[in-house]
């Protein structure tokens, strides 16, 4: 496991739990007075995890997946392997939760869960290929959202927004190649990696059709490079 994927949370929070179809124990930990508002996140995470196992053709390799809801966190979520950390104001969703909030939450969960395969199970050898982790997880997340919230499917709108954001970043004077030598990790994680990467993968799937999924699940870099680092062939 890559060292940047290690997380340890020390807390006295209660939790709710459920089991996926394959018996993976999924738990969500949060402050006691917010526990009921975490049920939607728990249910969605379990459904998306099961969907990804079927889509990728590779089971989730761990026996458990914990979601830790942190009151104060710099990012809305982080894909630590088997222990996803989520910022409180990004996750809590009660019974009267607006549909737009549910959609944002499902999108956040779908991306962090996709990272359990893209980036966690198989990790790029160095940061210059990080766009593959971020691009794939961003693109695949829309499939996870569509599975768990089909009535909220805004696939075309979301992809158009991602493409527009990527083009705006790409025309700026500070734009950069999607693959580049990385000196500082802080230079990464921007619209070039995530949204341009996602748009490229969308074009690829539209061009080759079902071969896109087969390339992931059958030839499967997940099967060949599980628990290893990968350097793409050029």
Question: Could you explain how this protein is built, in words?
Answer:
With 234 residues, this protein is of the alpha/beta class. It folds into two domains: 3-99, Neutral Protease, domain 2 (Orthogonal Bundle), CATH 1.10.390.10; 122-229, Neutral Protease Domain 2 (Neutral Protease, domain 2, Orthogonal Bundle), CATH 1.10.390.10. It is 44% helix and 13% strand. The protein has eight helices and seven strands. The protein has helices spanning 39-56, 88-91, 99-114, 130-148, 155-170, 191-208, 211-217, 221-225, and strands spanning 15-19, 25-29, 64-70, 77-78, 83-87, 122-124, 228-230. A five-stranded mixed β-sheet has the order 1-2-3-5-4. Strands 6-7 form a two-stranded parallel ribbon. Helix 1 (39-56) links the parallel strand 2 (25-29) and strand 3 (64-70). Helix 1 (39-56) crosses helix 3. The chain starts with 14 loop residues before the first strand and ends with a strand. The model has no long low-confidence stretch (mean pLDDT 81).
**CATH C-level category of the largest domain:** Mainly Alpha
The largest pleated sheet is described as: 5 strands, mixed
Give a count of the beta strands, DSSP E runs of length 2 or more: 7
What is the helical fraction, as a range of percent? 40-55%
Please state the structural category: alpha/beta
Strand content: 5-15%
Count of discrete structural domains: 2
CATH superfamily label of the largest domain: Neutral Protease Domain 2
The number of helical elements comes to 8
CATH architectural arrangement of the largest domain: Orthogonal Bundle
Shape: globular
What would the average pLDDT be, to the nearest integer? 81
CATH topology of the largest domain: Neutral Protease, domain 2
Uncertain runs: none
Q: Write the H/E string, N to C.
A: EEHEEEHHEHHHHHE
Order of adjacent strands in the largest pleated sheet: 1-2-3-5-4
Q: Could you give the distance between the termini?
A: 25 Å
């Amino acid at each position: 496991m890559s060292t940047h994927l290690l997380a340890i949370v020390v807390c006295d929070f209660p939790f709710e739990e459920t089991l996926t179809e394959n018996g993976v124990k999924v738990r969500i930990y949060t402050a006691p007075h917010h526990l009921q508002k975490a049920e939607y996140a728990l249910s969605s995470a379990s459904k998306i995890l099961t969907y990804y196992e079927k889509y990728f053709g590779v089971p989730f390799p761990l026996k458990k997946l914990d979601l830790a809801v942190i009151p104060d966190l710099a990012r809305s979520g982080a894909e630590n392997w088997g222990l996803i950390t989520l910022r409180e104001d990004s996750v809590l969703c009660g019974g009267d939760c607006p549909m737009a909030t549910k959609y944002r939450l499902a999108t956040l969960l779908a991306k962090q869960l996709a990272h359990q395969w893209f980036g966690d199970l198989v990790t790029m050898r160095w940061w210059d290929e990080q766009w593959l982790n971020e691009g794939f997880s961003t693109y695949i997340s829309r499939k996870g959202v569509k599975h768990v919230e089909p009535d909220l499917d805004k696939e075309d709108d979301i992809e158009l927004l991602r493409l527009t954001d990527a083009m705006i970043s790409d025309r700026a004077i500070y734009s950069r190649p999607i693959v580049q030598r990385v000196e500082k990790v802080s230079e990464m994680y921007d619209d070039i990696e995530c949204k341009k990467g996602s748009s490229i993968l969308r074009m690829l799937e539209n061009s080759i059709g079902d071969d896109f999924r087969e390339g992931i699940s059958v030839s499967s870099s997940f099967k060949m490079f599980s628990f290893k680092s990968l350097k793409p062939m050029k």
